[in-house]
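Posted in: Protein Modeling Q&A

I'm a second-year student putting together a small comparison for a lab meeting, and my supervisor asked me to include a predicted structure for HTH lysR-type domain-containing protein. I've never done this before, so apologies if this is the wrong subforum. The sequence is pasted below exactly as I got it from our records. If anyone can share the structure token output, I'd also love a short note on what stands out.
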Amino acid sequence: MGEGYGGCVTTWPDLAVLELLVAVAETGSIGAAAAAVGTGQPSASRSLLRLERRTGVTLLQRTPSGTVLTAQGALVVDWARDLLAAAAHFSDAQRTLVSGRSAVTVAASMTIAEYLLPRWLVPLRTAHPDVEVALVAANSTEVARAVRGGEADIGFVEDGRLPSGLHSTVVASDRLVVVVAPGHPWARRRRLPVTASELAATALLVREAGSGTRVALEDALGQHGLAVRPALELTTSTAVRIAALSAQSPAVLSELAVAGLLASGELVEVRVDGVDLTRELRAVWTGSRRPTGMVASVLAAAV
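Accepted answer (user: helix_wrangler)
Welcome! Here is the predicted structure, written out as tokens:
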């Protein structure tokens, strides 16, 4: 607990149990999650039950075949990821302050941070072992704001629109896909693609407004004079993916986020006719049009 404003006592979230909950979402079982965070399954189960009692919300549905998140649990995992990312950023910044070593802060949209940035940063770390690299994961709008405000040295966004006041270059391309659970009627439409009008008329599981994935979908439908109709808005691809597995609504996500589930048949890709769902992934920075120093090194690792 901590002392809040006005002498009020604030109960701070337990980061360890939030990390455990996120691990359950990623592994599908409490046992595997416990192993991932380095604790025993009985202790993990007790911690998760205490979290449910403390929040007053059922976060997990325990079944003979594994453990899945409830809809409320998916939202809590969404929020927990943001909190854990902020905690990691704080720890990195603190270590840099104490050690006096040079540092670079990289902000990246959720999809890029999860699926692309790790393999970009490994060679960077090898080439510059004396440099501390701090990663901030946020949606594309927030990444652009962080770079523009000097909170990050370089950012990576999924939004194809060039952010004002920033230099940018394309580092990769991506494709959004419409996916459904195997039992959804659209899963059986092998020969008859979904039209732009059908997609716009259907309530979809989507990322939040301001995310690169959402902006790309809005732009694609906007070319036909159509708008997105959200069934549920979530702030990470993982949360949308989990919801798609258990919901009756189609979801729209990066192909990077669902490749494994498409390969296993747990989700089915739906063909969409006449809607361009490809997009460019960009690096953004301030200052000189030609980046220098560690910003240039990070950019070189990405391209």
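A couple of things worth pointing out for your meeting: The longest helix spans residues 71-99. The chain has three domains: 2-78, 84-172+281-302, 173-279.
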